[in-house]
Amino acid sequence: MTLCDHRGQVLSHTEKAWASITFAGTRHSVSLLFAGEEAVEAGEVFIAALPDHEFAIAGQLVADAGVSEVDHRILPDPRLVVHCELLLLEDA
Questions:
Q1: How many other CB atoms are found less than 10 A from the CB of residue 61?
Q2: Could you give all domains of the chain from N- to C-terminal order, each with its CATH number?
Q3: Mean pLDDT across the stretch 1-5?
Q4: What are phi and psi of 65, to 5 degrees?
Q5: What sign results for the dihedral spanned by CA atoms 57, 63, 39, 73?
Q6: Residues 32/46, Cβ–Cβ less than 8 Å
Q7: Backbone angles phi, psi at 56, to 5 degrees
Q8: Which domain of life is it from (predicted)?
Q9: pLDDT tens, residue by residue, 9-22
Q10: Which residues contact 54 (CB under 8 A, 6 or more apart)?
Q11: Angle at 33 between CA 30 and CA 37, to 5 degrees
Q12: Rounded to whole angstroms, how far apart are CA atoms 47 and 84?
């Protein structure tokens, strides 16, 4: 939430276990709502910054983070819905 200046509202979050031969972790799908002009601006900054953001999550490495879908509306009220996918690996 810091990445979007606490202007986003979590609409949904799902988590699925994920593993390969060498790694284990979880895949997260998150949908965020940004309502209002200032929130939409923060959401646009979030979209640009997410893929290269350096996360600091204890015991986890963020192997991949990206935006999978965006729904942007201007009328009647500005709003932005951002769907993100994150892959977190257990940091041994």
A1: 14
A2: 2-90 (3.30.2000.30)
A3: 89
A4: -145, 125
A5: negative
A6: yes
A7: -125, 85
A8: Bacteria
A9: 999 999 999 999 99
A10: none
A11: 145
A12: 9
